[in-house]
Task: structure prediction
Amino acid sequence: MCGIVGYIGDHAAAPYVIEGLKTLEYRGYDSAGIAVLGSKGATIVRSVGRIRDLEAKLPKRLTGKVGIGHTRWATHGPATTDNAHPHTSAGGRIALVHNGIIDNAATLRTKLMAADVAFTSDTDTEVVAHLIARSAADTLEGAVLDALAQITGTYALAVTDSGHPDRIVIARNGSPLIIGVGEKETLIASDAAALVRHTTRVVHLDDGELATVTAGGFHTFDREANDTGREPVEIDLAATDLELTGHEHYMYKEILEQPERAAAVIRGRLDARFATARLNGLNLSPRELRAFRRVKFLGCGSAYYVGQIGAQMIEDLARIPADAEPASEFRYRNPIIEPDTLYVVVSQSGETADTAFAVLEIKRKGGTVIGAVNVVGSTIAREVDGGIYLHAGPEIAVASTKALTNMAMAFGMLALHLGRLHDLSYADGERISNALKAIPEQIQAILDSEPAIAAIAQRVAKAENAFFIGRVRQYPVAREGAQKLKEISYVHAEAYPTSELKHGPLALIDPAMLTVAVVPDDELASRNIAAVEQVRARGGEVVAITHEAVEFGTIAIERIVVPKTEPELDPILLIIPTQLLAYHAALVLGHDVDKPRNLAKSVTVE
Ligand code: AGP
Result:
């Protein structure tokens, strides 16, 4: 979704800003723009389409050393050049870029229009430029504070003023904003990925915080203009983590990274002495953890499906009632927040607005909420009471893969930890712990069978419709498999519990309907095989994701065999082939795998 980049320093700003915007392309956008402050004021260039279209429109000589840029994902008004950021005040003195939504923009627009202010866009953002320009304050900081006092909503803002060309003023409320501190240069970005090529010393602004950013450094302050004295910290993110390193797609690179990343999430966290997991980041004592009588997972999209996997693991291993719910629905149903429920929010980006609002709802009502988050220092990671970082490394492709695997690995550890605080025996703790350790190698074995999966994907690509079916632990696997296929191949796919097929969906089975059945070697295998038989009897084709020991007899199906782990952890491995199926189907169909249509990597609006 929308992205912000800014530069102020010794060099021409435009190349830095354009490079940063290109890094943020993965987040999804429909238009972009840049403002560069030079000796004759601000040069504003905006464009619909890709950053390369914007780059092509830049004047040959653009030497100003202060610049801000933006990628826009349309919310208020269509994707047009006029609606692209930066927005300016009349005469162009103030230029600003904005992520988030100004809730009272319509009221402010009416008031400003009554005062003869002419608007040039349909956006909510433009009101902020006019409010700043109309402030009587004699500093840019004062004018921004005046404007913020009049607006409600969420924002990350970066503002330049050709009357104060030595600075960029930035403000954050509910939308991330990071300062990168370099040598004689300072950068700003909504995502650390956009500035790590230049510095890894960063400050994550807090909500309600502002900063003056200059070539020599920065100064942070709050809405009452009090100094907040923030110091930079080092982030563990290398520019090379963001490269394709010879692969054609980020999604493919991220699928291949899974053995290494899955090993990273358990590293140092399995305690052989007590056959448990050591999760110090939870910030909860054994006594506090034992007091929870219920666990609820909250996440959106795939993170919600993996939350369902986590809930089942907790019920299996800790015998504590657990469930998962879409974070996007949570706060709208006035949820009952129970003091003895442990809330677990799940997010790769740590910036998903729906999930972040769920955290606030839980905290507002006094609940305890921990996070399973990938991006260190992200909004959700900073709001929760504690949590488990996923250590999946930067995930660029819109379709999440390695982060989901690490969520499931993290939930395996959480379930083990809670289990060992309750009635899980030492022997069972060891069984799970050993199984978790073996998973990275087992993922590698699945990845080694890629050619066979790619061949089956040829058939998947031909389907117009597909069912993904699985039971109990494997139902979330089916949901995630269907989601992945939809997202990047645009093949219509729906997930059902296998047991539900006969209660309705079976009516749709015919030779044109493909069924991907998740059939592990467990106590439900014979029932699953019976369901596969019912599909075949109606002429439906079946691809089974299964274990070696499962015998389908003479039923004609395609089989993708994955290694067996402990039953509680099977979903972690059974999900992996669905990634490769979706990836290869999307390749066959010629789609933009990393940037599927209509989707954004990080959904920062509700
Ligand atoms: C996954 O492939 C999807 N792109 C999407 O469902 C994603 O998982 C969801 O939007 C949540 O994102 P988050 O993990 O960054 O919060």
